[in-house]
Amino acid sequence: MAEANTFNNLVREAFISPLRSVLIIDDQYPTWEEIFNSKIAGEDNSRQIEARSKSKKWQESVIASEVMKLIKEFRSQNPGFIIDIHDGVSSSSTEKTAGSETPGQLADHLHQSDLLILDYNLEGAETGTGGDIARKILSSVLDNQHFNLVVVHTSEELDKAMYESLRALMRSRTSLYDAECIAQINILDDIITEKENADEFDRGLIEEKLDMASYIQARHPDGGQEKAISDFMQGRGAYASLAEWSNELSLIGSQKKCFFHWAMRTFEKKYLADFTENPPKDLSWNVSDACKWLRTSRGFACFVKKGPENLLAELEHALVDWKPTPSRLLSAKYRDEISRIGAEVEDASLKNKYALAKFYETILKPGKEGLPHEQLQLLRHYNLKDHVSRQSEMLSFLVEENVADFGKKIFSVDEETGFTFKDHYRVNLDNDADNKKAISQYNRYVCCLPSRMDVLGKVNTEQLDSGHVFKLDDTWWVCATPACDLQPGQSTIAFKKGNDVSLRPFTAIRLQKVTNPNELTAHHINSGSYCYVEYDGNILGLGIKSPKEDSSTPAIQKVEWRTFVAQQGAVIQDGKLSLLELQLELDGLKIKSEKKEVEVIAKLRYEYALNYIQRVGVSVSRIGLGYVSPSL
């Protein structure tokens, strides 16, 4: 009988079913070395390994049963998981011990396993370090570039393990206060000190008035602080006791609100060593009796008590509680499809050996003979990027049907449950402001390639290309020269470069900035004259005319275009491009030019870049000038 479509099933198909391997990190579990070493006789038997093995709790029947249960659970999957057990973790995050790895080194190759089961107290309860190594591993895993799934498996109290892990992944609240807030807190602290000197107040009671659960709740990224301050000011909920305490100081207005920040600072002083200065991106979490999980942009971890629980069921339960968006489900399914049938698809994409032999020839000989070595290297890089782009497109083309079918399942389940999945985005499109913001960001997503800075955290060197949008002083431009004419070794009939072969002439169209994209109507954006870019955290509309001019004279298709000369092979370095701005003014017998450095803001997708290239052709066309207007 076919399995009913439910959200749980969608989550299982996207995240659980693709799992093929698991790595268990537990210092009390046996490793392969210990198992085989126990059967080796004579001088080849390692006494060190034997001693380590005998000191572990897996030698006890209860723990051995626990290990066996875990292994059975993972082996019973279809297909059964590949299982490995690891315990050789150094107690230092920077130093390596013989035969073991630091937490950071371990995290670097964890992508070889699909799932990590992490014992929280690796160093043993007797050390008193309370999960320090596990937190370092967790931080390293969640900073890894691969999306990782982690189950923190522990005998410790779950809330405590969760709070300690969260502190290890966030900056202190104190470090986030601005100078004005700190100044106000310090003034209030002086007032409190005077009260204490008069035995009218005792800051030592802070942990009776604010507990860790309330502190963590106030740090939640989804409006945690705003709600906490609101509850505190109204003396309700988890902050009622704190509010009552503040009344002893007879504070009014902004002073009372400042007391909340003072309390947060005072409370976290005891834990300042736990926080990090390099938090992972997009940290979020849920701490409830039913479920405890945290996630970042690079991983997801749930916390499970050691016992009879089915770990995969617990992981699925936590993933369902997270409520991944339909977009996230589709993305996970896409990764699974590439992984599942990637080799077959790759083989199909590589069948045309003649075409691919020709491709490799373009790598061996990327340009004409006589080009400088640097330009040949640049051309080779450019050819390789083109090849990767075509291969990626081919792979996507071959798996997109399966992913689209999964998308239909998502819609079907959403339909049966009353279309609730849109709430997973936590964006209220019925709210006018949210809807306008969503429209701007969606339009930017449609027309622009993603920023490498956003994805990789760094800006790579790249060649100027058609569709690059750049800012020259206070003016905006889009490169409208075909990519092939910007590559090294290409000659331009209208431009003689002289001795400097690194110069690249190109045409750019001037764009008018629309600060408020909401001014743009359907008439504007469907005219093909506009694009959207992100600049300084805001979405800007850029059009070949201003919206007002576009409405009053809609038939005018001509654009303002200009020729620039890019220097240094038209290479964009750290988002900057050096160019010569030509001026039609003779300097002796030479055309004047001014050297400028422009800021490259975005790159349009190919079809949008092509639209601007065509606009140049329309502008230089003289068709229509011979017509006679009926109004004359």
From TrEMBL:
Pfam families: Response_reg_2. It comes from the Bacteria. Residues 19-180 form the Response receiver domain. This is Response regulator receiver domain.
